[in-house]
Amino acid sequence: MLAMPRNAVIGVDIGTSSSKGVLVGLDGTLIRSATREHTPARPGPGRFEMDASIWWREFIELARELAAADDTTVVAVGVSGMGPCVLLADERDTPLRPAVLYGVDTRSVHQIQRIEARLGADEIMRRGGSALTTQAAGPKIAWIAEEEPELYARARRLYMPSSWLVRQLTGDYVLDHHSASQCTPLYDTHTREWYAPWAADVAPGIELPPLRWPGEAAGTLTPEAARATGLPAGIPVTTGTVDAWAEALSVGAQNIGDLMLMYGTTMFLIHTVPEPLTSPSLWGTVGALPGTRNLAGGMATSGAVANWLRDLFADGDHARLTALAAESGPGANGLLMLPYFSGERTPIMDPDARGVIAGLTLSHTRGDLYRAALEATGFAVRQNIEVIEVVGGDIRRVVAVGGGTQGALWTQIVSDITGRPQELRAITIGAGYGDALLAAQLVGDASIEDWNPVRETVTPRAEHTGRYDELYTLYRRLYPDTAATVHALAALQER
């Protein structure tokens, strides 16, 4: 007798450097995973873009590969993606230009200044939860309106990677509340609705999408999408959200006092708080679950610097470089790095910051450089944590997730530098797994504690505290000591 196929869900996340999909049983078992790599376009200094056709094409490829398992039946789909991004489409839902990506794209500095002059910086933070920075979607929309007015005149709808997938899969035009809360200044974090006066000011003519929570069903798979993807027509699709928030759900880091550290192309931090907290150095948002609030931070690069170093060395690969970095030892033999290779987001909020490597000698090795990059992430995490606590955050537990947790060295370095233990769950594959959890909750009961228990805890090593405290003091001094020089160099790079 043939065995009956078991029910499963698919989760797909559109990231900065790849799209990742997972096929997961309703009990949380990871059945299959797949990846498609891509590279954002960089049409100029400080500009990062991506064609939305990549998102849909890679979703189709991932869905067909994952659903090819003969012993499973896909019963729901969850989606997420990098954000906040700005994809503008016309009245027929045809994209008008490549999407402008999140805070790694720093083109909107002048628009920020003009919007603040009109609306007031303090009022923007009070209503929107965050200072206006190049992370926010609002100034990116304003940049397109000012710099490409003929194109903008045809714009009618706003999409992000997750909501674009939802549109292709279900035909529905929706966005989740969390993504909307990163559209500063278009969203009111107190009323949890679009704020019409500021939307009309910053994004005139755009029909902003109806809002739902990430785990709510956006709609069901259309027959056309079923033919394209090979998935069953009529199955529910989640509304979805920004990748970092799906990643937090994938490891259960959504309780009051939790701090998620996402080790990826960029480093992201999400702290769940009981009441709204604001800081000009962080982002105050609504959470992925109804009623939750977050204080969040994010670096512009982290794993991206490690990838850059790998690519510089002809025979470089991460496993080899990690082994060499471990031999280098704490302090990278006197090297110190500022990881601001694409500007920096929190807490310095400086799009014109640039990477600095201090202390180089002819005796330094590839392992020293790679170690300095990993330690730079640790110092940046420590600085973000300090800002979170200064404004009232209460970090009770740190949970790590993402591809960078696969090797023990990086997480150990961050714990040593911050003095914080980090929980690692059994599955740290990331946002796609969180997407799958939300999809499973559409069709039944699913709990992350049952799906993904704690596997180990990385504890700080006391013998390294003194060295890293000394280096952290130097790290904090290095940015202000070099800022004028790197700003001048950033200006030259714009020419």
Automatic annotation (TrEMBL):
Q: Which Pfam families match?
A: FGGY_C (PF02782), FGGY_N (PF00370)
Tell me the protein's name. Answer: Sugar kinase
UniProt keyword Iron, yes or no: no
Its organism's taxonomic lineage begins at: Bacteria, Bacillati, Actinomycetota, Actinomycetes, Kitasatosporales
What the entry lists under Gene3D superfamilies is as follows: 3.30.420.40
Q: Where in this chain does the record put each Carbohydrate kinase FGGY N-terminal domain? A: 9-248
Q: Name one GO biological process term.
A: D-xylose metabolic process
Q: Which UniProt keywords apply?
A: Carbohydrate metabolism, Kinase, Transferase, Xylose metabolism
Return the PANTHER family for the record: SUGAR KINASE, XYLULOSE KINASE
Q: Which GO terms describe its molecular function?
A: kinase activity; phosphotransferase activity, alcohol group as acceptor
Carbohydrate kinase FGGY C-terminal domain location: 260-440
Q: Which family does it belong to?
A: Belongs to the FGGY kinase family.
The record's section on InterPro entries has: ATPase_NBD (IPR043129), Carb_kinase_FGGY (IPR000577), Carb_kinase_FGGY_CS (IPR018483), FGGY_C (IPR018485), FGGY_Carb_Kinase (IPR050406), FGGY_N (IPR018484)
